[in-house]
Amino acid sequence: MQELAGKLRTLDPEASETLRVIAYFDALTAGHASAEALVRGASLLAGVPAGVASTKQTLRVDTDGRRSGDEGSAGAWPSRSLTGGGTVWIEREGNAHANDEMILERVALALSILSERTGPADSVRSPVETLLDPTAPNESRQAAAQSLHLAPTTRYRVITQPASTTGNAAGPSAIITTVAGAVRAEIVLSTDSAAAARAGIGMAAAPLGLAGSWQSALTALRLTSDGEPVLHADDLGSLLLLAEISPAGAPDNCDLQSLGIVIRDSPRILPMLDTLAASESLRAAAATLGFHHSTVQSRAEDLSAKLGFDVRTARGRTRLSVALALYRLETTRFE
Amino acid sequence: MNTAHPAPPFDVEVAAALAFIQPDLLGTVTPEGIKELRARPTIPLEEILTGRSIVHREETIRGRHGDLVLSIFQRVDHQPSGPGIFTIHGGGMILGDRFAGIEKVLDWVDCLDAVAVSIEYRLAPEYPDPVPVEDCYDGLLWMAENAHQLGFSPEALVIVGASAGGGLAAGAALLARDSGSPQLAAQMLLCPMLDDRAATVSSRQIEVATWDSESNDTGWSSLLGDRRGTDDVSIYAAPARATDLSGLPPTFIDVGSSDLFRDEDVAYASTLWASGGQCELHVWAGGCHGYEVHAPLAGVSIATQDARLSWLKRILGL
To answer: Which of 66-125 (A) contact B at CB < 8 A?
Structure first.
């Protein structure tokens, strides 16, 4: 029964629909949509023609979803640059609509990711994607390692960063769609130092073990926070195992639900929770946070009541640490 | 039935549209949920007609089960003697009204200068079989008998329906065949709901929030009650039951490869051919049930609409 159930159409000029715009382009990217499908998406959500011009392709889509004969150009239209070179635009006349910025940002990111891929999903993948795919046959991964000139006995690491991070990758890299959104995976020597604003550093491995390094780097990235923006998988130990369970499918009593409610009710509590989990005592937590001891004491009491376990005990801190890790695995998205 | 394989993947633009409209999707329709779904707001007719040079009027006629309301659409500058399109809305036999999904028909009114009649047939479960299909047939007969007054050529009468409307269109076309009138120029069955038995692979393989097997169970059981799946179901209620489809007009059938109606629709085309009939069948890769409605500007949806119009023009000699 189709007609009652909604359809994809031009967005309200005034109501912001950020999450839906992101979901739309993420789904197109995950499905390896063509440049035309991406530009068509921008056009239909904006309700005006849209186009892209780059060295790889130049095309324009009309409001009826069809490719127009006239290729058009960015001219003075609202536009965004693509990381690989080129421009995408929407032909908005008059004032910008509420979602124009977000549409342009997401279509530009999606087109940038597309231009880094060498081909559609199942025909030609980038060797980095093949090497990091644990389900790829050994021979394919061997061939991929060779084509990347990786020495079989040398140890490397995968470094993960949000795909939206700009900056040139030093080693071979690819953008990969993950449970946490679009992530850039870069392969570096295990001895290289990593300088990044937000990153997960994978465990060292020989080329054929890099799929494992990628998984550990992705988990590390998902566990980063504003307080700890760069995490080494080497330092995470058994916390890495948490990524193998689905927090959504975890039992009700895993503390994730009560933690989720606490964070939802007061989002700015996160640094305090992190500090409580990481500190040996309330006094140490108070010192880190720069609060008075009695303030932290009463907050800890209050939080313990809401969470259903006592964060002032060693077991409570462990439960809090694990719940925070699960919470980040569940909620971290790189848009 | 165990299904050994997962459903074919969705077309990428269809999948993205489903992600976008996720909160609005129907979900699984249960008998208890019908009332709430019927109360959902629909797009007002004025909005549907905005930007179109089309006029609308209503007619109430007498059918064997009681009064029937029909909506009649034609171009403002309509010239008589074009095609007539009798259209039946979808909704699993239990939901929807005569304006649901009318846009595609209005496109044809626009570009073919057709006269379209959309019928408000009575819905199950309040009005079980044979009421819905006989309402549709009574409306079709009225349209044919009033061709001159309505301003279309009686030789160019096409019956169209989508989803449950496709099943009812096929049923009404069978009633027309077996009672000798009216003569139809063509039938267009768009992802039609034809088979109450849920015995095909696709009827169990595909679970998508636009129309899943449990929703389909709800629709058929509402229409047929305890008779569902038994020998006591007519070919007019479930046209897939027909083994002889000779004597039917040229037929167009389309369906997505990820629609649970896929296999019954393909089988209907095969039976039409086996019966010496003419049928054009399109199975669109990666389309879920109603994909062209949910994602009207997806590449595959544009191709779908183009194919329908192309066939109409060919079959009507336009």
So the answer is: 66
Instruction: Closest CB to A4: pick one of B13, B96, B301.
Output: B96
Q: Would the CB atoms of A2 and B101 count as touching at under 8 Å?
A: yes
Amino acid of residue A309: F
* Element at A29 (helix H, strand E): helix A18-30
Tell me if residue A52 falls in helix, strand or coil: strand
- Asked if residues A256 and A330 have their Cβ atoms less than 8 Å apart, the reply is yes
Looking at chain B from residue 66 to 95, which residues have their Cβ under 8 Å from any Cβ of chain A? 89-92, 95
Which sign, positive or negative, has the C-alpha torsion B281, B287, B290, B293? negative
Q: Which of A2, A37, A64 sits opposite B293 (nearest CB)?
A: A2
**CA of B276, closest CA in chain A: separation in Å?**
32
**CB-CB under 8 Å, B90 with A33:** no
Residue A8 touches chain B, beta carbons under 8 Å: yes
Residue A136, judged by CB atoms within 10 A of its CB (0-12, 13-18, 19+), counts as: middle
User: Nearest 5°: CA angle at A91, between A335 and A47?
Assistant: 70
Q: Is B274 on the interface with A (CB under 8 A)?
A: no
B293 shares contact with chain A (CB less than 8 Å): yes
By C-alpha distance, the chain A residue nearest B193 is A1
Please give the helix or strand (H or E) that residue A89 lies within, else none.
strand A87-90
> Does residue A296 contact residue A286 with C-beta atoms inside 8 Å?
yes
DSSP string, A53-69: E-SS-EEEE-TTSPBPS
A181 touches chain B (CB under 8 A): no
* pTM score above 0.80: no
User: What pLDDT, in 10s, does the model give residues A130-176?
Assistant: 899 988 888 888 888 988 889 988 999 999 999 877 666 678 888 88
- The answer to whether residue A20 neighbours chain B at the CB level (below 8 Å) is yes
Tokens of B113: 């200068």
Of the candidates A26, A31, A65, the beta carbon closest to that of B297 is on: A65
Question: A2 and B297: CB-CB below 8 Å?
Answer: no
DSSP characters for A92-151? --SSPPTTHHHHHHHHHHHHHHHHHS-S-TTT---HHHHHH-TTS-HHHHHHHHHHTT--
pLDDT digits (tens, 9 = 90+) for B96-152: 999 999 999 999 999 999 999 999 999 999 999 999 999 999 999 999 999 999 999
Cis upstream peptide for B130 (omega within 30°): yes
Half-sphere exposure of B79 (CA within 13 A, CB side): 4
- Confirm whether the ipTM is greater than 0.85: no
C-alpha to C-alpha distance for A146 and A139, rounded to whole angstroms? 10
Among A4, A12, A21, A48, pick the best mutation site for testing chain B contact (most B Cβ within 10 A). A4
